[in-house]
Write a structure and sequence with these properties.
Blueprint lengths: L1 H17 L2 E2 L2 E2 L4 H15 L2 H14 L6 H15 L2 H14 L4 H18 L2 H18 L11 H22 L1
Antiparallel strand pairs: 1-2
Helix pairs in contact: 1-2, 2-3, 3-4, 4-5, 4-6, 5-6, 6-7, 7-8
């Protein structure tokens, strides 16, 4: 938590000292990055409401920023943590329809969707998203080295879901 506080403090200092906003346009290219850093720090600190406010600010103020898609992803994560699952779904849907996503953003979005489905108790949809992550990672790998781009957390989560489903199926057939 101390590191998060330090990141928030340093990001705030950079914004205060270097922001050059004239006629509604920011001329310092690092300001949106610092807001993003502050939002991530709030998220890891567990202050999800503050993080959500920061990511919403990035989305509304920096329309042409390269951090806009990442801010939307993190905003959806905040909504999930706050229990606002409908807002998270709306954010995900907006991302899927309005933005042209890069592979890394698609992977991140699939991870967020899997988390959302798990919170809703929809394990099959979560498993589908985790499989999609695996497929996207294999596609994006230039060298097809087994295990190089594997996501251990996704595999562990997917394996746990699969095992629970198999266990349920066994009980059904007995």
């Amino acid at each position: 938590i101390r590191d998060s506080d330090k990141a928030i403090q340093k990001g705030s200092i950079v914004i205060q000292k270097h922001s050059i906003k004239i006629n509604g346009r920011e001329y310092c290219r690092w300001i949106d990055d610092n807001y993003f850093l502050i939002g991530v720090a709030y998220f890891y600190k567990g202050e999800f409401e503050e993080a959500a406010t920061t990511f919403s600010f990035i989305k509304s103020e920096y329309l042409n920023s390269n951090r806009r898609v990442e801010a939307s992803n993190w905003l959806a994560r905040c909504y999930i943590e706050l229990g606002r699952l409908d807002a998270a779904e709306a954010e995900i849907e907006e991302l899927e329809t309005k933005e042209q996503l890069k592979k890394k953003d698609q992977i991140q979005l699939s991870t967020i969707k899997a988390d959302l489905y798990l919170k809703k108790g929809l394990e099959r949809q979560a498993l589908k998203q985790l499989s999609m992550i695996d497929a996207l990672q294999k596609k994006s790998s230039k060298k097809n080295i087994p295990g190089k781009n594997d996501c251990p957390n996704c595999r562990d989560t997917g394996g746990g879901i699969w095992a629970r489903q198999q266990k349920r199926n066994c009980y059904i057939y007995i």
